């Protein structure tokens, strides 16, 4: 009779085969998890226990944060908020060499702070920022790269959907994860701006400065952003102060998005219905992934394979940061061939116990994984955001992929800095505890 660890290893192999067959990742994890659990515990316990996971997972209170934050992001993206953010950033830094590209990065960072997903920034900046940079004869790769790579800042800057999913899967505080992403998100934004500054310093024609604006114009440009900043401060301030939970913050954010849309007269019934439909689609996809992951995690728990792998990793005669580097490289490789968001959910039942056995802080580890997701959504040949941006703008995919190279280097530098100095991500969360 095979031991549970062997059954777990066989389950992993079967899962990989199913993934290559083209089956949905969530469905593949659920199938392997059910039959793997049944092979160890018996079909009776499987039929009694696994259905409970469906109910408890979908009905779990923190899970309601997913549709709330997605709805908020979709609603704000349908009310042209991104255009206001870009115009404000444009007035502030547009007169600098490469300033329009920097304004795009800053606008994407601000957009990230109120949406949690990159798609709205990709769509908005593709319509607003890209034509503006073309108007001032910006290098196409610089223009495209500044949008395609800055939009995924939504995965790092709270309220980040990736932090919500990571927190749910690993049972860590979503509020602490939000706080942990603030400094790394700002750091990555600054690194992107530094990349633009270096490119335009070497080749001034790549990013000619835009028209100068007076101090008064800069101040007046902020009038289009005050409600978004207020919404962001209200949500994070409420979480930070213990006034409400991240789930309640999602509800407040959604309601605030409705008020913002009504106040600027850009919200219509059709836009609300569109936002609800898009939020429903995204939520259904995420729920399938999470439910599948929970069933697979149940199987992994009874197989004891993650514990065995964690013990092996802890006993390896190499520094733990070498193993950590191997984990990061593994995710970078997975991001080249799989949707990285799904890949993280797929592998977390194995990787997370190993990380804990090595003594890594789970909040810091979540930030690093999120930074890896930022890279994964832009790396070829399966960089999902690059495909989306190419489809939205008509720019050849080859151009989009080649434009990410300098920003990809900034991503790697950011991971190295955050990995070397964990306090950058843990400073604010520790203030909360």
Question: Can you describe what's shown?
Answer:
It is a single chain. With 433 residues, the protein is mainly alpha-helical. The protein contains 23 helices and no strands. The chain has helices at 4-20, 25-41, 43-58, 65-77, 81-93, 99-115, 119-135, 140-150, 161-170, 174-180, 182-202, 215-221, 226-240, 246-263, 269-303, 305-315, 320-337, 340-357, 362-376, 384-393, 397-403, 405-420, 423-432.
Report mean pLDDT, rounded to a whole number: 83
Please give the number of β-strands: 0
* General form: globular
Helicity, as a percent range: over 70%
Q: Beta fraction of the residues?
A: under 5%
Structural class: mainly alpha
Subunit arrangement of the protein: single chain
Number of helices: 23
Give helix and strand order, one letter per element, not per position: HHHHHHHHHHHHHHHHHHHHHHH
- Largest sheet composition: none
Low-confidence stretches: none
Summarize the structure.
The protein is mainly α and 433 residues long. It is built from 23 helices and no strands. The protein is globular, with a radius of gyration of 22 Å.
Descriptive labels:
433 residues; mainly alpha; single chain
SSE layout and pairing:
Elements lengths: L3 H17 L4 H17 L1 H16 L6 H13 L3 H13 L5 H17 L3 H17 L4 H11 L10 H10 L3 H7 L1 H21 L12 H7 L4 H15 L5 H18 L5 H35 L1 H11 L4 H18 L2 H18 L4 H15 L7 H10 L3 H7 L1 H16 L2 H10 L1
């Amino acid at each position: 009779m095979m031991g549970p660890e062997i059954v777990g290893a066989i389950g992993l192999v079967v899962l990989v085969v199913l993934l290559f067959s083209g089956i949905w990742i969530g469905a593949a994890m659920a199938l392997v998890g059910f039959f793997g659990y049944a092979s160890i515990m018996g079909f009776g316990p499987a039929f009694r226990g696994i259905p409970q996971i469906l109910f408890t997972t979908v009905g779990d209170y923190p899970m309601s944060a997913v549709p709330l934050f997605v709805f908020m992001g979709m609603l704000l993206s349908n009310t042209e908020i991104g255009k206001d953010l870009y115009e404000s950033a444009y007035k502030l830094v547009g007169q600098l060499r490469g300033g329009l590209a920097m304004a795009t990065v800053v606008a994407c960072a601000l957009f990230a702070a109120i949406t949690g997903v990159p798609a709205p920034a990709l769509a908005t900046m593709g319509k607003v920022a890209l034509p503006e940079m073309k108007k001032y004869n910006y290098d196409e790769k610089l223009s495209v790269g500044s949008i395609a790579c800055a939009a995924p800042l939504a995965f790092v800057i709270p309220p980040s959907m990736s932090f919500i999913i990571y927190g749910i899967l690993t049972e860590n505080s979503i509020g602490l994860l939000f706080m942990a992403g603030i400094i790394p998100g700002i750091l990555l934004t600054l690194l992107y701006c530094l990349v633009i500054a270096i490119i335009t310093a070497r080749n001034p024609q790549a990013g000619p400065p835009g028209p100068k604006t007076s101090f008064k114009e800069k101040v007046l440009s902020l009038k289009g952003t005050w409600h978004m900043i207020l919404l962001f401060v209200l949500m994070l301030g409420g979480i930070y102060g213990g006034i409400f939970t991240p789930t309640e913050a999602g509800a407040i954010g959604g309601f605030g998005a409705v008020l913002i849309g009504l106040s600027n007269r850009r919200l219509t019934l059709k836009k609300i219905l569109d936002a609800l439909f898009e939020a429903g689609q995204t939520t259904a996809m995420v729920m399938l992934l999470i439910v599948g992951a929970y069933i697979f995690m149940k199987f992994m728990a009874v197989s004891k394979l993650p514990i065995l792998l964690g013990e092996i990793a802890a006993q390896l005669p190499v520094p733990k940061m070498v193993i950590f580097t191997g984990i990061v490289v593994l995710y970078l490789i997975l991001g080249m061939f799989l949707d990285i968001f799904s890949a993280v959910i797929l592998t977390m039942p194995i990787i997370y116990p190993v990380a804990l056995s090595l003594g890594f802080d789970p909040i810091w580890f979540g930030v690093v994984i999120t930074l890896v997701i930022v890279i994964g959504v832009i790396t070829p040949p399966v960089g999902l955001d690059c495909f989306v941006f190419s489809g939205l703008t008509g720019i050849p995919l080859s151009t989009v992929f080649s434009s990410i190279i300098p920003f990809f280097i900034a991503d790697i530098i950011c991971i190295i800095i955050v990995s070397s100095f964990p306090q950058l991500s843990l400073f604010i969360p520790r203030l909360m505890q």
